[in-house]
Amino acid sequence: MLSQVWIIRLCPYLTIYQRYTHKAIISEFGELPVEKNSVNKWQFWVDRGGTFTDIVARRPDGRLQTHKLLSENPEIYADAAVHGIKSLLGISGNAVVPAGMISAVKMGTTVATNALLERKGEKTLLLITKGLKDLLRIGYQNRPDLFDLEIKLPELLYNEAIEVEERMSAEGKIIHALDEAQAHTALKNAYDNGYRSVAIALMHGYKFTDHEARLGQLARDVGFTQISLSHEVSPLIKLVSRGDTAVVDAYLSPILRRYVEQVATALNASDGGCDSLMFMQSNGGLTDAHLFQGKDAILSGPAGGVVGMVRTAAELDFDRLIGFDMGGTSTDVCHYAGEFERSFETEVAGVRMRAPMMSIHTVAAGGGSILSYKDGRMQVGPESAGANPGPAAYRRGGPLTVTDCNVLLGKLQPSQFPSVFGPNADLPLDADVVREKFKALAAQIDGNKTVEEIAEGFLRIAVENMANAIKKISVQRGYDVTKYTMNCFGGAGGQHACLVADALGMESIFIHPFAGVLSAFGMGLADVRTIQEHQFAGDITDATAQNVVDTLAVKATAEIVAQDIDPQNIQCVATAHIRTDGAHQTLEVPFGTPADMKAGFDKVHRQRFGFVPEYATLIIDLLTCEAIGSTGETVTIPTETPVDVTPLSGQMFSGGAWVTVPLVDRAALTFGQTVTGPAILTEPTGTNILEDGWQAEAAKGGNLVLRRIVPLTRQEAIGTSVDPVMLEVFNNLFMSIAEQMGATLANTAYSVNIKERYDFSCAIFDSRGDLVANAPHVPVHLGSMSTSVRTILQQNAGKIAPGDVFMMNNPYNGGTHLPDVTVITPVFDDTGHDIIYTVASRGHHADIGGTTPGSAPPDSRHIEEEGVLIDNFLLVKQGDLQEKAARELLTSGLYPCRNIDQNMADLAAQIAANATGVSELTKITRQFGLKVVHAYMAHVQDNAEESVRGVLDVLHDCCFSYPLDSGARIKVSIIVDKSARQATIDFTGTSAQDPFNYNAPLSICHAVVLYVFRTLVGSNIPMNEGCLKPLNIIVPKGCMINPNAPAAVISGNTEVSQAICDALYGALGVIAGSQGTMNNFVYGNDTFQNYETICGGTGAGNGFNGTSAVHSHMTNTRMTDPEVLETRFPVRVDEFSIRQGSGGTGAFNGGNGIVRKLQFLQPMTATVLSSHRETQPHGAAGGGAGQAGENSIVRSNGTIELLKGNDVAHMNAGDVFVLKSPGGGGYGHLPCQETEIEE
User: Fold this and answer.
1) Pick the CATH number of 528-629 from 1.10.20, 3.30.70, 3.40.190, 3.30.1490
2) Which of 29, 618, 989, 1167 is least enclosed, having the fewest CB within 10 Å?
3) pTM of this prediction?
4) What letters, b where the CB count within 10 A reaches 16 and e where it falls short, cover 552-575?
């Protein structure tokens, strides 16, 4: 039996040496020893990209050729890959490929990706468990852009969803048997309506497969030609992402199948024209064309680049790599440290995928990224000029782009670039028009800057954007990027590699001779691979894991053998995806003995998060087995005589001045020869810029190795006066640090609330405690943390020491409600004397005590009834965790915490997140100097302030009175002082504080005002303290949005914050009322506690409809997947659907709310905090109101109990809690309709 851990054997890899000829469309390369089975036959390795198709051909005599052509050129050819292959074979377009000519075609293709992006897949039907028809549409209920009032969700792939009468429990018990007659009728009706493709995804179908399998057979009997069963495409827990994956497979596989057949026919494969046709999968392995599935095709092309990156760099023994693939529209980056890294859950084009893919991070920064000057900041992208019109230099009237920066600075020399531009495609790059456009832009930005300085500034911004993308795959995950080599490829990579490396502190770069077509080259270096998966969810000591691995290995091996791979050439690798009990995040370690797996887990955990979880039970969440079939490719290329070329030179802007630099033809370099920068190295597939301080060496195999030979000066003298370049650089740097903090927190947290629902926020503050930057997390947290930070700094002035960390949740000192615990870390200078910054993270703890589980009592009157109040508590003293004192605090009071271990684990994650922020702030301080960082912390706030003043320039005085279910009102007036460019937001007239818990601390009111005015700006400015500077906020003491202690406040954070928000929008008139609630639903007992916020409808605006079933305004937390929920808690999701017709009508309709029915399987206490159960979300400009929400219980005996908006109930086994959330208001009158509106 296959019962051990196998190690991947790296397949032998090609080395090549290129003989370059400038302006040649087809490049030839040296001789190669030829495989036995491919004597006198061609091989083609193809990357069919979105813009260009790259082909590497291996001729029968062993020479290599490259060919590049447009992927779409319908006037000349139907398919680029086939046309390119026939061109290389010397065969006309319509001629048949003779038998025996081609041994193999290995291809990566964007056919599936393009169909997904353009939504041009197959007409698809979805079958799903009854009650969950809208589940994939609702997804995890979060909105994609936090500050967009017009929420745009991705377009659905399936055309129709049909609910099937069936239900399995999480334990495999049949709750409702499959109604085959109903299912057959539905399938037959759909077939008669033109459906041929169906995706089938049922609750717990990943584990209990009978119902899905039977439905699949019924679909085959009806005549469906594409049937994608979720347990076959992705046998993993999480119905939302597994269902999406099944839909993607059903949507794309027919498209792929037709493309494969088209290629096979064109190559005469059936009559021997091509012996083997294989395609690259997203996981980095080749597969036979007839096994190529839609779910495995999304990253087909980029995966070839990762394989090429690893295999080529191995020739020089580089085994720790950062892949840097820069193209025209975007840049792909990846990480390698001895093993291919894969993601098993990815979102692509708005679709959640649960399938193994190469871990590739994409950033919208490429050669075609458009340059702009907006909001006082020089900005690069995300918009791209594309191939048409392309950059300004392309002579098609295009805008200025990153490519034009390099043209202006002499880094792209028109004389060394193909003359393929202009109306007759025979002119060089237009440097003159580039200079003229930069002159105009320079005059707009800063008349004192030269065009060269402007271009260098834009280039720096682009470089920092790409460097931040690399940090996401390295620094955020605990890797020291300075110890890695960058493998640079892609058409634009060589122009920026040195600059990106400098931004990251990297000191070596590898550039392969085929760097310009490395993804295509990677197809020829790839192995045949398949990955089998099994959701295990057992302890690492569970002996049955070995049997599972053996079974997976047999299946994987059989699939490879079926593709004519010799069993002797097949290796298998078994991997365990391990997590701590109760956590979600898994780490991959080699499968082995329990002791080996624990040691592997501890090692990876320490590397990633800086500590080892003690006393934690380790769970194998997932087992995978990868079979790798070596294709036996063995190719080497002898070194050839370098080309003799006349030395050339050119002018390049470097170090603030124009300098003469050598133009070096790469083909002229001899082995061991070096070139010292600044210099330009040219080749047919790209240009490589050697920056000052760098040296290039011609290594064996024609490879180039670039090394920094002059230490980089880390302290930059950039001055403290505001500069539009550095303003954008620092804005992105500060944001990146906050995002890295958030990634650490999500990865290390214990609770579902923080880890899966993302109910947390991270931010950095200046030395005064003013908000500088935050990651786009939960709005109600972000604007209110400043008060907490300032409180800690003020109350402990002169007493804080380096290594101290504080925590607090006091609503009267900057907190929101007690479950939101803020952890605050002051950052000291090198002397340890002065606090120079502060970082903070706020996380919603699942339980912080109180009278009800989950700490959300509906009838609380005193803050103590809502949990443990924490005020200015020293959590870490000079680096030592005060665990005993913390535990004593959390168990104190009348209503202590119910799960102290979970609280402590989440606090440890918050401490780790803050440590990430401290580390990154320290790095930039060393790079730029403290004065500069302090200056730009002020500048980014000033920039945000000016953006808000710009909004005030077009606002007018307005007011609104917003009614609550209790009869209370929030009143607001906005008075604009045009001359001072300021506004007063006055809440005078708002009702007195509530005797129960509908009270919002003052910090929440400030957070809401900050959020609303940030959304009004309409462009991507940082949300920081500067947004509030032009605003004078008046909130009377003792009213419900500025209550006196010790008033209860649990509903203030969730309900009153939404009401304040809708009141402000009501006054401004820009959008109708949204659901106006977070629908807090908390349930539990002494063993289980869970907390949900539930989505609803959003308000319509002038020109757009509201959005259904999505979170709005002050929250954006995620909903736990129903399979995960039912596996971890004794509940059952009977229904989660869109509440049709609940949105208000108007010229633009409001979004619909949802219906959520949760059945309890054990006795528990359930608490709901919700609004708009009596009043309706208002319409705007004559639009109709949205429907109010409803809360009720259907008892197990069938009786129905109606509940109030805020209520608590004891749930028995079999009882069903029903929550119907409100719809959003409509905007504008319907034709021929008059509606009274409240002024």
Assistant:
1) 3.30.1490
2) 989
3) 0.85
4) bbbebbebbeebebeeebbbbbbb
